[in-house]
Amino acid sequence: EMKIEIYKLIAKTYLRLGDPEKVDENFTAALEIAKQPGFSPKIRFELYFSYADFLMLKKKYEESYIYLKLALDIEGGLNGYKTEIYATVLSTMGSYFLEGELNQEKALLYFNRSIGIWKDIFNDNGGNKVNASFHDTRFVFAYRGKSKALLRRYELNGDVENLLRSLENYEWLIEQLERIGRNLQKENQEIVRTQLYPIYNEAISLAYKLYKITSSTYHQKKAFTFSEKSKSAILLSSIQNLNALKTSDIPKSILELDQ
Fold first, then answer.
1. 95: closest CA among 68, 126, 116?
2. Of the candidates 84, 96, 214, which has an alpha carbon nearest to the alpha carbon of residue 154?
3. Rounded distance, CA 195 to CA 149, Å?
4. Rounded to two decimals, what is the model's pTM?
5. What are the helix and strand counts (H, E) for the chain?
6. Per-residue pLDDT tens for 92-131?
7. Cα diameter, the chain
8. How far is CA 208 from CA 38, 196, 211, in A?
9. CB 137 within 8 A of CB 177
10. Is there a contact between 112 and 118 (Cβ–Cβ < 8 Å)?
11. Cα(222)–Cα(36) distance, rounded to whole angstroms?
C-alpha cells in the first residue's frame, strides 16, 4: 500500500510539472500493484478515482469512465449509496457524459442523482439551504454541472425554460457558497472565492443571455448584480493577498514593484 501512495505522490508531482506521460506511467505502476490480492478497497477506490480525474483532465473520457465505474462500485459496497463521496463520483460521471459523450440528458441523470444525495445530507443538517458551518463544498460540482447541462439542452431544443432553471440553480449555488464563505476564517475564504469566480462568470453570461431573449429588466439586474459581486470578490482577494505579503519577509522594494 505504501508503494501505491508513493506512485500517486510522484504522479501528482509530475502533473504539477506538466509531464502527463510520467503521470500516466506512475499511475499505471500503481494500478499494477493494486491488482494483487490483499489491498484494501479504500486504497483501490482512491487510486481509481484519482486516475479517472487525471484521464478526464487529458480528455481520455472512455478510459476515465471505466475507472469511475470501478470507484463508484467500491464506494457503494463499502459505505452505501448516500455518502458525500458517492455523490461526488456521481457528479464526476455527470461531467463525463456532458463533456465526453456530449449527452446532456444522461449528464442530468447523474447530476440529479448526486444532488438528491446532497439534499438528504443538507436536510440532516437543517434544511435545503446549506448550513453555514457546512464546509464540504464538493456539492458544487453537481449543481454547477446541472446548470451547464440545462444550458446545453437549451442550445439543442431552444426551450427557454431550461435557461430559467439553469439560472435558478446558479442563484441557489452562489447563495450557499457566499454563506459558507462568510463563516470561514479569512485564510480559508480564498478557497470559496476560487470556486465562486467561474460560477459568477457563468451566471453573468446566462443572465445576459436571458435578458437578450426576454428583454426582462430582472435578468439585466441579475447580470449586473453578479458582475458587481465578482468585482468585489476579486478586489477583496487582492487586498488580502497584499496584506499577507506585507506581513511576510519580502523586502518593501519588491512589494512596491509588485503593486
1. 68
2. 214
3. 18
4. 0.84
5. 11, 0
6. 999 999 999 999 999 999 999 999 999 998 876 555 667 7
7. 63
8. 55, 18, 5
9. yes
10. no
11. 55
